[in-house]
Amino acid sequence: MVSEEQNHNVSRRQFLTYTLTGVGGFMAAGIILPMARFAIDPVLQAESAGDMKAVASVDDLTDQPQRFDFSYEQEDAWVTSEVTETAWIYQEGDEIIALSPTCTHLGCTVGWEANQDHPKEFFCPCHGGRFKKDGTNIEGTPPTEPLHKYEVEVQQGTVYVGKAESQV
């Protein structure tokens, strides 16, 4: 008497179906996986911790915010482009403060003493947003949070800025 396990025969049609499905699956994986990795891998790359950009000389700083533009190459997934950003930088005693010029209301650009009616303040001409010298938003104006502050380092007399982060 033959057990059922030994009597299990695979038809020619089933064998070809299993074989072609397996080979087709391996071929599809061999084609799709490299394309998926090419598309996704650059996005998953970690940003390096030391991405500080040289902006100004400490000798150029005063106690009033000054506009400094700086450029760097940005790699966005698989595209590299030149990016120009701005920072409002001033020195308060031994501390160097660098503020983002982007209004926290709707992303417009603020200027230091840009409005004669509001001296010694950052002013956003689009919606009347106002900020104190330290970037704090003035109550009763549209912005709901202070200007973002750049991470600052000084090395050999040069001011380096990192990523702008919220002050709240």
UniProtKB/TrEMBL annotation:
Residues 65-161 form the Rieske domain. It comes from the Bacteria. The chain crosses the membrane at residues 15-36. Keywords: 2Fe-2S, Disulfide bond, Electron transport, Iron, Iron-sulfur, Membrane, Metal-binding, Oxidoreductase, Transmembrane, Transmembrane helix, Transport. One of its GO terms (molecular function) is monooxygenase activity. Gene3D superfamilies: Rieske [2Fe-2S] iron-sulphur domain. The keyword NADP does not apply. Pfam families: Rieske (PF00355). Component of the menaquinol:cytochrome c reductase complex. The Rieske protein is a high potential 2Fe-2S protein. The main subunits of the menaquinol:cytochrome c complex are a Rieske-type iron-sulfur protein (QcrA), a cytochrome b (QcrB) and a cytochrome c (QcrC). PANTHER family: CYTOCHROME B-C1 COMPLEX SUBUNIT RIESKE, MITOCHONDRIAL (PTHR10134). Belongs to the Rieske iron-sulfur protein family. This is Menaquinol:cytochrome c reductase iron-sulfur subunit. It comes from Salibacterium salarium.
